[in-house]
Amino acid sequence: MNYLPPQLMKISRIVLPGDVKARMKQPHVVELSESIAKRTGKRPIHLPTVEYPSKELLAGGDRLAAQLLLGYRSVWVQPVSQLTPQERRDIRRDENLHRRVVDRDALIRERVAEYAAEIEVQRAAEQITPRKSPRGEARERVAAELETTTEAIRQAEQRDAANVDTAYAFAAPHLSDPADLSVAQSLPMPVEMYGLPLLTDVEAEEVRTVQDALDSADALLRRTQAVLRGIDRSSPFAAVAEGLGRATHQVAAEVRASRPAAVCPYCKRLPQFVASCSGCKGLGYVAADVMLGVADELKLGGDLATVATGGRLVTYAYALTAKAAVAPKAKKIRIENEAGEELVPATDDGLPF
Ligand SMILES: [Zn+2]
Fold this sequence. Notes:
- By secondary structure, the protein is of the alpha+beta class.
- Among the domains are: 2-83, Conserved hypothetical protein from pyrococcus furiosus pfu- 392566-001, ParB domain (Alpha-Beta Complex); 87-186, no CATH class; 201-257.
- The protein is 43% helix and 10% strand.
- The chain starts with a strand and ends in a 34-residue tail after the last helix.
């Protein structure tokens, strides 16, 4: 295969796939066209691939459809020549994975969430007795599409979730004794645990279920927004659609802000602290965006892990002892995570600093 220099080509000269009109109506293509117009310099990040000299479009149907939606007459393409049949197949497969110009793991996770949501809706309507969880069935479907295993799909989802949720840096956990971990290590833990055994298997599975449900809700809300954006600007309902879009955007943001990403860095789910913890409001978990505002000391792991109690920082090991329990008179724990004055370590009280 030869890569020729990218060139601007008239769309009318390109041999397009038969489904290009149908693609133009798809919500993710509408979304992609917005991204191309506003964020990626009026052309997709990856150029559509065109065979030379036949000018047949080999990959990039959605990207081309998105540019047709924008009214472009000419588009930048990547011409290639002298393809073997295997190279042709590879390009077509690649097309399926890069359709939405996003990372493959993110695409897989999103597709699973969308399918799971669809399956849930379908089951509710048809009262089907479930063979598997909606998510399990969605994974099977995506695995079949991508010719891989459900385990590979699950791992891709987890990699993507970890990428999104750990955009903040954590100190490396210092485990004094890995055998202390009473939790199974077969699956990655669904939330940050600071290298401590803070969740049982059952609790971890509960958290995964909640994360899955919120991911499905998020995918559906994104789809809702894309569909609303598809309503013509000249329509008398354009203003209504815009209002609904804004409201949906707000709910979607709240859904994402509710997704547990870490065990509460303040109380570490310690029973004597969690109920009165203002960091997590008694929940024991916080979302990724909350972690961004948390003092670094509270993110330390293993032996260095800390707990915020009564406005002081103590080590997790010390907090486990009865001595650290909140005094009967103590009011609600107040935490100043921005200003930080409430988090200054105490210098007296015989604390182990
Ligand atoms: Zn807490």
